[in-house]
């Protein structure tokens, strides 16, 4: 627990206190609103995550001290999911990020239903894309 | 007047979902099944399964008789002249592909296939790919404001090069009945073949492809309160004779040698391999169930539900309907709300609706929307379902705006 990035600890604290779909949706929207929009020049096909019903862009840069991710979507709730995802992975140590169990992260937040295969929100596609990026 | 469905109790699936707190408003994707269909499916397997059209033993004879009785039931449902006009496929999608491959030899480079702008991918991609294989031109008939094929435009686009017209009867996105009589007349005047995608239309009212004058009529059993695994292709006899065999193997072959073979004519010649025996038999039971209902009562119930749905949607600020839905369903968007967000919050509240582009991506591209939310209705829905949907909608919108 103590190894979690500060933003992740904050996400965990607020989501585990939320009960019910309404509280969770409110939180997701709050988190999503904090996500910095991607400038249009970065909203390219190459940065687009395929397999999402809504449009999602994901950018990853590897720095010395860790990975830096940016992501955005035109759907608000998905933006919130991206925000709590980035809270967990952004700045993560390059040697450890490939081992992260991101499905477990969403389960800890009480958001595992968002990962069910029939959900067309695209979160699964985003996780798969992150997996490829950090392997490659 | 409260909107009560006298048939709701016949559908264990809708009751089970209700006990789980789920409101099912996604019947255009697939319908719940009547108990009699479940009984028929179980009855066939529990009574002793056997393959059809092959062996002489009792179980095989029983299965074959029941299988062919279903074909006759489908023929009756469509008012076909003969059960031989009914081909079973695995779903509607396979039926479109059957026709696309079966007719491929009739097309020459430069020929045209006309579809409408609202086709489901299933009635678009087989033609698009056929066009690519054969150097044909795919002509897309535009829609009017209501969401129907624009007839004056169609009259100029359907021409001497048109060899096939393939259009939906009832749009799975817009809920609009298409002007089939006029479109089929335009195509026939040019000597073109015609195919109707009845996947949604078949579920609402009784339809007679022969009277419509189309060469091919396609639907899926699972939307018509039947099981999945069965699609139907109804063909006019003359059109049937123009299809070439497309899948090869057992059941469809009459005489096989190592280096040549002869095949059965339709229908068996187009049902290669072991068919979905249990589901075909069960589809017969669904049709028997539907035949036992009062068609006027069904229609009145569906119309009342649909009117209630439209009134409620129109009464809400910022809600915009796609086209002018006439039956079965309505798709809508809400100003400043992403349809994916709305669909998610409805789902979170136990309301089963569809969000997204409903297997019609080019249509959304054309109307410039990222998707929509679709509510679709069936016999078993009632006023209570709609009341819960509207309550969930209001809650979701309050949160999102
Ligand atoms: C209008 C229309 N055509 C074709 C299909 C394809 O049906 P199936 O997936 O059963 O092949 C559907 C089902 O979604 C549909 O709504």
Can you describe what's shown?
- The complex is a heterodimer of chains A (136) and B (401).
- Chain A has helices at 6-17, 21-34, 76-89, 94-97, 102-108, 123-135; strands spanning 56-62, 67-73.
- Chain A is 47% helix and 10% strand.
- In chain A, a hairpin with a 4-residue loop joins strand 1 (56-62) and strand 2.
- Chain A is globular.
- In chain A, strands 1-2 form a two-stranded antiparallel ribbon.
- Chain B is of the alpha/beta class and 401 residues long.
- Chain B folds into two domains: 8-31 and 294-400, Aspartate Aminotransferase, domain 1 (Alpha-Beta Complex), CATH 3.90.1150; 38-291, Type I PLP-dependent aspartate aminotransferase-like (Major domain) (Aspartate Aminotransferase, domain 2, 3-Layer(aba) Sandwich).
- Helices cover 39% and strands 16% of the residues of chain B.
- In chain B, the strands form four sheets. Chain B has a seven-stranded mixed beta sheet, sandwiched between helices.
- In chain B, strand 11 and strand 12 form a beta hairpin.
- In chain B, helix 2 packs antiparallel against helix 10, helix 3 (58-77) crosses helix 10 and helix 12 crosses helix 14.
- The structure holds pyridoxal-5'-phosphate.
- Residues 91-93, 120, 122-123, 168, 172, 197, 199-200, 220, 359 of chain B line the site of pyridoxal-5'-phosphate (PLP).
